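Quick one before lunch.
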Amino acid sequence: MLQLSGIKKNFGNIQVLHGVDLDVRAGEVHALLGENGAGKSTLMKILCGILKPDAGEIRIDGRPCHFASYRQAIEQGVGVVFQEFSLVPYLNAVDNMFLAREQRNGLGLLKRTAMRERAAAILGQLGVEIALEVPVRQLSVAQQQFVEIAKALALNARLLVLDEPTATLTPAEVEHLFKVMRSLREQGVAIIFISHHLEEIFEICDRITVLRDGDRIGCCEVAEVDYARLVEMMVGRRLENCFPPKPALPGDADPVIEVEELQLARGGPVSRFELRAGEILGFAGLVGSGRTETVLAMLGAHPAACCKLRMNGVPMRFANPAEALQAGIGLLPESRKEQGLITGFSILHNVSLNNYGKYLLGRLFVDRAREDEDTRLAMQRVRVKAQGPHTRVDTLSGGNQQKVVIARWINHAMKVLIFDEPTRGIDVGAKADIYQLMRQFAAQGHSIIMISSELPEVVGMSDRVCVFRAGGIVATVEGAAVTSEDIMTHATTGRTRHAA
Ligand SMILES: Nc1ncnc2c1ncn2[C@@H]1O[C@H](COP(=O)(O)OP(=O)(O)OP(=O)(O)O)[C@@H](O)[C@H]1O
Ligand SMILES: [Mg+2]
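Model of the adenosine-5'-triphosphate complex:
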């Protein structure tokens, strides 16, 4: 149904696609796989008319197509769910779904009821309940993701592109999405699916095309390959165990932060925990179990009913995150685009952000050479793939943007780092790099709190794990008890049990 052949694309003097082929059949789910920056999103933007290819051809049903805009692609039945959200935050779900394609009656008036019903029907088909009246910015990230998907479905697309749709979804929501994808597949819709979760690829896809550095490495049936082979195709080398070994921690390591009492809302559960020097403390739990809020409350960025903590034995209360930063606590937020980066700035300015004092020469001058050098070093350490420190962050691939946030804290000499979903949207090779960096940081005697919804990551990385449920910590596990089963049991049944 779809044939892309010899697609080439340059940005300035960098070629990011070197003549890529891709063919997709009606009624199949086709995975597009590759490391961060391999060119997946760029290829999809070319497919839907947002970017112009420098060479190559697009055919749909054998006929050559030249899309001058996304609108023309939509008319040919191509729908896309973009990696970075494209919703208008101030409009509600219905208005977003029908933006620029509003249904009107003979008088040119909006058919509000009809659009609302159609929107409700599509969201119903997705099996999600979403308030249709409120601006989408008031919805959770997962709900916004579903509105995004519903928007593409409203196009009645014959070819649907999903660029990392599962990155922000819970396992149950992913299952929902897969159900919808299966039913679309039965109706003969062709789906291109991008994800860094290989187990999802094995579950839902029929064929896989792998890109590496803008080249097509191969295309195969899912049944023909295994995990190790796929990874090898993606990164060009075999990956050993991606989690670094956990060193034995002395039982008497000093507590750096002791949270004596933290209550998010009056009457809610009370959390207690301590973070020790040199450890990685995992925060596990279902989405919405209060992990992020608890961390934000600690840093003074979320109103809590009660927050009593000590840092290095001294009682503390942070009025705002700037004070926490002063005390040496850095946060990598879960939504890099809104909270972690200024995307219109260069990598350099994002890395030295809130660390300018370090580069002042006297009161008037900035040591640009040193700033430049530090940024280059930090970029190398986390392997940001970009032309140089002056590249704008919004031209980087999603995964590379995340690495820039990490580069900032690496450069900022923090004592405590809080990682909220550290590897969301990060490819397997880069994940291993990030885990390594986290371990090195801890080995220097620093501490990490890692919030993660990926159980293998929690189990593979944490020395101890606090399990959250309904707004507070219900259990703390360590040693041999750090297993997926144990954590899930606590997260879902909430039996209170504190390990010694
Ligand atoms: N507008 C742009 N200007 C300059 N370079 C760009 C632009 N858009 C993308 N690039 C570069 O093209 C390359 C491919 O990026 P792309 O977003 O397609 O990667 P990706 O495979 O989708 O990665 P990810 O898995 O991280 O989303 C990257 O090196 C990126 O920096
Ligand atoms: Mg991408």
